[in-house]
Recover the amino acids of this structure.
């Protein structure tokens, strides 16, 4: 052989346990526990049933939105329209419930899912960045919602029975709806493990090029992620309409930042590929406990936005995988 | 070494199709603007009255300042979503330092400087976090935008502080030669921005970095410095816009910037500045802002629901991005 | 004889387990055009990267006008007056010609960050004048043709003159590959002009061009500088032989395991396939169990051809027929479903799914063998994964290890397993399959290729070396500048020699 040879190298030794990775993965949970401890020390009745009920009730719509967003962020994208879409959905629900009852609920969920599908379709087929496409969608559905509702909330009186159970039904004094959302998150997590294509979203986030060159239909997976996000926005819309007894064009808008924060704080990396629904549940819990915690510690509620902003940036910094970013824009 | 990359079989942009596209992107917006003006002049008698034109120009001013700042960031291929938060914070800092009904400060022009610098500071933070920590710009500015609103909320303290300085108030409500003073401020800002874009490294290297960052890096350019500078320019512009809005409304308010971000991005896109970076400029943004403002003004006169406008703007952004990116589509391509 | 303006002595550079440059010595004299030829992997690219300061040599020295110099980076090389016109376009299309020519070195045309356009354009014009180009410095690069852009690159490269008192050394790396017809003549005229104000190193795979333009020619092979010749007296055949001649061991390539395929059915048939600016009128067929090797240098069109077959790029003309049915894929999704597999050259980005486990990687192309409907069968998956690890001798801590931690060779085996797992596999495309692999891994790959053939899988091979191509293939087609130059039968006992291939490639 004319080629100069060196001795065959040994296969790279398995690295010692990835302490940094493990620590970061456990961090959200540690933070949650710490927060609960701190808040309980200041407000002992924090862990009382009534308080927990309130916590779960405020967490549920955020968690629904965050779960939908989780699918999208796992693929490495983002959906900036998800909260505005939910608001739009609540407006539609308020208009359709009186006439259609439960069918109205199904119709709204259908429309929301379709909106998500359109987002995903456009993004995947036209190959445009998701943040700008969903920024446009944000304007579109926000504008439509405002136009249809005349920029005001619509009270739901007749037809409310169809969604009344969401706020009324309790199980062991805890809101059933909230528990169902958590169960849903668990089911999704299980599905991701059990289905042979369950890790598709992660795969796109981690190695889209390799997936493409292995014959994987990244177009389909991406569309699915955004479609699911739309569906979950719809679920959030229904839940919000139930708790507020009304639909409004800005009903869910204030939840946009907390929901994104929940996903990111839970440990799902903005670069995609890492994370999942259970992490998002932890993230959502952190968000709501943080809210209560801030007031308990005596922080002015007007600081809330600042806290969200800082927390989001911090969480992104900790979880971002720069090696996969290439040129950052 | 070799890259079996996506540039196989690409010919240079001298094909017929590319030339047509270049022409449309180049002259299109201006033609559209003229067409719109003509249309509304015909459709509504009120449109071409001097009073309306004056209102139109005033409406255009603040949007133009924001759009001009955004242009620098978009030329890089990045985005700045913190505009509304920065405007809110700047307006409050400005009002609270000028003569107001909450405290005894009366810093006059220095208050203006303080307001503007607030914007610059936010821009600096945006740039540094984005460049040094490698966080995508949409994420950073989403976070700092929230911080901006939050800071404004804290400063707001439950009730809007009112601007009592008559001299400064006149900037917003007074007029010179029949045009609102805000228009002149906007013209000055536009002029300065054009000079920066055409005659300074911040401007020119912005085009280079946005056009081909890897090559820029190989040439030994300090990319970080120029990226951060562009974000500072955008933040400063938002700061100026916040101050302008405060003089116009007479208060500092957390909601002072609501709706501007969206409209400004639409304006930049409509003007022909590409979101992928490297192409466009502040003059194009001027045309885009004019289009948006004429549309907004005209449609209201014709009786169209303003919220439908927002919806249409959203659609326009999506269509514009699809159109400009259509020829770049490839089978094996990753866009997140 | 004029003194050398640039000398390279005993330059050596090794990457991991590959020696890219081995004790290379050559010189460029004043106002000379020196040609560099060599086939793929000869070391030309590495040498140029060292000269431009991108790589540092492991040993040896570089002398500029007799003085020892070290290039610690791109700027050092430019300051030493070495200007490079790269193979890939390196102009920023969003700004003007002047800005490109002076990018990063505007000097006193930009003071305190403020542009003096008149000065900038004048400076750029000075460079353009050197090559007597009619292009205006104010033009926007996006409006220029490829040929014009190359002239701008040349003017830019000449800019290094401003940095050093010496006359520049201009390196042209495959400058003619993007040019056609008259544009070539313009290029050659430029090189003649350059001769008077600089010294030139001309690198190209087109032997006839190199011989036409150069005063002296160096031949690189396997990282060594094997010969120096005068083009006027050189014998083209001898040059071909110098470029390739090496002993090959039939044992290494498992040639004994190669089985003849003359009577097998045709699996893939390609007729008049063409893709603009890449290749044209390509026709061939591949039978069950056959290895078709495609030889060619960079720019020959062979890489583009395989990507078109896999559906990763569209084609403009011709047909592809698989198992008797005409096919046209909209993307790799269709190709994989129809039975194509692809082991890519860019292993880390397109071959393996970094961050995922070895096992997950194995079922990336087709999870059906380990599924029941939509559900994963974890036990079956781990069984099959373990089997592959054993069969292919993949060295990994376990099947759940992160694939990014494996060595290149083992990663490649996982990629192989991914395609072997797919029961649909009919045609497997191997694009530089042994690149970056150590000897042991290479041998394994050759063994598996033989095994695949016995299973009836058709293989299209783009190999790293001519020896590999010849030893592994049943038939070979040689491509040059987008067309098939010739075909060779390479059945066992009837193998062509590397020289025969090279003659067609360059």
């Amino acid at each position: 052989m004319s080629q100069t040879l060196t001795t065959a190298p040994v296969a790279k030794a398995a690295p010692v346990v990835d302490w940094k990775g493990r620590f970061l993965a456990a961090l959200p949970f540690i933070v949650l526990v710490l927060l609960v401890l701190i808040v309980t020390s200041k407000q002992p009745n924090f862990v009382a049933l009534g308080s927990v009920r309130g916590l779960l009730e405020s967490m549920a719509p955020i968690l629904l939105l965050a779960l939908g967003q989780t699918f999208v962020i796992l693929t490495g994208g983002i959906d900036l329209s998800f909260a505005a879409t939910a608001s739009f959905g609540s407006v539609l629900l308020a208009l359709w419930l009186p006439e259609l009852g439960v069918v109205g609920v199904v119709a709204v969920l259908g429309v929301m899912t379709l909106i998500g599908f359109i987002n995903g379709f456009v993004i995947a087929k036209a190959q445009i960045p998701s943040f700008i496409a969903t920024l446009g969608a944000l304007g579109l559905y926000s504008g439509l919602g405002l136009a249809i509702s005349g920029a005001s909330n619509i009270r739901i009186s007749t037809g409310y029975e169809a969604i009344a159970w969401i706020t009324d039904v309790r199980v062991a004094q805890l809101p059933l709806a909230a528990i169902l959302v958590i169960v849903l998150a668990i089911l999704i997590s299980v599905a991701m493990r059990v289905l042979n294509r369950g890790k598709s979203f992660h795969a796109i986030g981690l190695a889209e090029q390799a997936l493409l060159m292995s014959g994987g239909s990244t177009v389909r997976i991406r569309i699915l992620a955004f479609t699911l996000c739309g569906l979950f926005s719809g679920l959030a819309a229904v839940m919000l309409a139930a708790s507020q007894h009304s639909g409004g064009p800005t009903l869910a808008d204030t939840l946009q930042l907390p929901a994104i924060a929940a996903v990111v704080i839970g440990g799902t990396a903005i670069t995609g590929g890492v994370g999942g629904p259970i992490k998002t549940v932890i993230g959502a819990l952190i968000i709501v406990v943080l809210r209560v915690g801030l007031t308990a510690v005596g922080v002015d509620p007007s600081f809330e936005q600042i806290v969200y902003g800082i927390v989001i940036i911090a969480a992104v910094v900790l979880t971002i995988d720069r090696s996969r970013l290439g040129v950052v824009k | 070494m070799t890259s079996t990359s996506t540039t196989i079989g690409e010919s240079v942009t001298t094909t017929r199709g590319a030339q047509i596209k270049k022409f449309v992107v180049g002259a299109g917006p201006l033609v559209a603007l003229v067409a719109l003006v003509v249309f509304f002049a015909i459709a509504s008698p009120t449109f071409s009255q001097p009073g309306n034109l004056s209102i139109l120009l005033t409406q255009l001013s603040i949007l133009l300042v924001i759009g001009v700042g955004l242009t620098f960031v978009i030329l890089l291929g990045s985005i700045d979503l913190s505009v509304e938060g920065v405007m809110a914070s700047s307006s409050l800092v400005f009002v609270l330092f000028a003569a107001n009904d909450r405290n005894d400060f009366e810093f006059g022009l220095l208050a203006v400087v303080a307001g503007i610098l607030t914007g610059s500071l936010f821009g600096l933070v945006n740039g540094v976090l984005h460049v040094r920590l490698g966080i995508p710009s949409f994420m950073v500015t989403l976070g700092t935008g929230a911080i901006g609103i939050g800071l404004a909320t804290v400063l707001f303290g439950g009730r809007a502080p009112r601007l009592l300085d008559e001299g400064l108030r006149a900037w917003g409500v007074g007029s010179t030669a029949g045009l609102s003073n805000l228009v002149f401020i906007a013209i000055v800002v536009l002029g300065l921005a054009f000079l920066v874009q055409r005659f300074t490294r911040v401007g020119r290297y912005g085009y280079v970095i946005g056009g081909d960052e890897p090559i820029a890096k190989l040439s030994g350019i300090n990319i970080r410095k120029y990226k951060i500078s562009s974000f500072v320019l955008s933040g400063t512009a938002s700061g100026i816009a916040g101050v302008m809005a405060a003089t116009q409304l007479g208060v500092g308010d957390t909601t002072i910037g609501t709706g501007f971000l969206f409209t400004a991005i639409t304006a930049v896109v409509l003007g022909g500045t590409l979101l992928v970076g490297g192409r466009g400029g502040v003059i194009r943004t001027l045309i885009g802002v004019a289009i948006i403002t004429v549309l907004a003004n005209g449609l209201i006169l014709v009786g169209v629901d303003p919220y439908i406008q927002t919806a249409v703007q959203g659609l326009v952004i999506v269509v514009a991005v699809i159109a400009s990116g259509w020829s770049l589509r490839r089978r094996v391509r990753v866009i997140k | 004889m004029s003194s050398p303006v640039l000398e390279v002595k005993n330059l050596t550079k090794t990457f991991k387990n590959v020696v890219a440059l081995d004790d290379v010595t050559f010189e460029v004299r004043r106002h000379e055009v020196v040609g560099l030829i060599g086939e793929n992997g000869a070391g030309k690219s590495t040498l140029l990267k060292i000269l431009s300061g991108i790589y540092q040599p492991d040993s040896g020295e570089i002398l500029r006008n007799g003085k020892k110099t070290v290039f610690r980076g791109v700027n050092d090389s430019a300051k030493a007056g070495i200007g490079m016109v790269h193979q890939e376009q390196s102009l920023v299309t969003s700004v003007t010609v002047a800005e490109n020519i002076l990018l990063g070195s505007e000097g006193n045309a930009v003071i305190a960050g403020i542009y003096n356009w008149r000065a900038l354009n004048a400076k750029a014009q000075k460079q353009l004048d050197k090559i007597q180009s009619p292009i205006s410095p104010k033009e926007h690069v996006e409006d220029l043709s490829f040929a014009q852009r190359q002239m701008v690159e040349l003017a830019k490269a000449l800019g290094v003159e401003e940095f050093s008192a010496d006359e520049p050394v201009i390196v042209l790396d495959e400058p003619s590959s993007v040019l056609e017809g008259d544009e070539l003549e313009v290029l050659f005229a430029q090189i003649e002009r350059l001769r008077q104000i600089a010294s030139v190193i001309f690198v190209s795979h087109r032997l006839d061009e190199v011989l036409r333009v150069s005063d002296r020619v160096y031949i690189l092979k396997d990282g060594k500088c094997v010969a120096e010749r005068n083009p006027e007296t050189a014998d083209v055949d001898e040059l071909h032989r110098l470029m390739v001649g090496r002993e090959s061991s039939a044992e290494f390539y498992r040639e004994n395991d190669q089985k003849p395929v003359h009577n097998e059915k045709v699996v893939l048939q390609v007729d008049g396939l063409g893709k603009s600016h890449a290749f044209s009128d390509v026709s061939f067929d591949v039978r069950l169990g056959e290895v078709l090797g495609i030889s060619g240098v960079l720019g020959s069109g062979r890489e583009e051809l395989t990507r078109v077959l896999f559906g990763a790029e569209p084609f403009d003309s011709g047909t592809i027929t698989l198992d008797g049915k005409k096919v046209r894929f909209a993307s790799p999704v269709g190709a994989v479903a129809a039975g194509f597999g692809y082991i890519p050259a860019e292993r880390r980005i397109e071959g393996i799914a970094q961050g995922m486990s070895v096992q997950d990687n194995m079922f990336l192309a087709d999870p059906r063998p380990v599924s029941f409907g939509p559900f994963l069968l974890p036990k079956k998956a781990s069984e099959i994964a373990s089997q592959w690890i054993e069969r292919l001798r993949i060295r990994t801590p376990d099947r759940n290890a992160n694939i990014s931690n494996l060595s290149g060779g083992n990663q490649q085996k996982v990629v192989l397993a991914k395609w072997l797992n797919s029961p649909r596999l009919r045609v497997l495309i191997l694009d530089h399959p042994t690149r970056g692999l150590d000897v042991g891994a290479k041998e394994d790959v050759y063994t598996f290729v033989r095994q695949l053939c016995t299973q009836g899988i058709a293989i299209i091979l783009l190999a790293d070396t001519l020896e590999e191509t010849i030893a592994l293939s049943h038939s070979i087609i040689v491509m040059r500048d987008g067309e098939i130059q010739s075909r060779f039968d390479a059945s066992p006992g009837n193998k062509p020699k590397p020289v025969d291939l090279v003659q067609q490639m360059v």
In short: Strands of chain B lie at 175-176, 179-180. The CA atoms of residues 174 and 180 of chain B lie 6 Å apart. Residues 1-13 of chain B have pLDDT under 50 and may be disordered. Chain B touches chain A through 61 residues (CB under 8 Å).
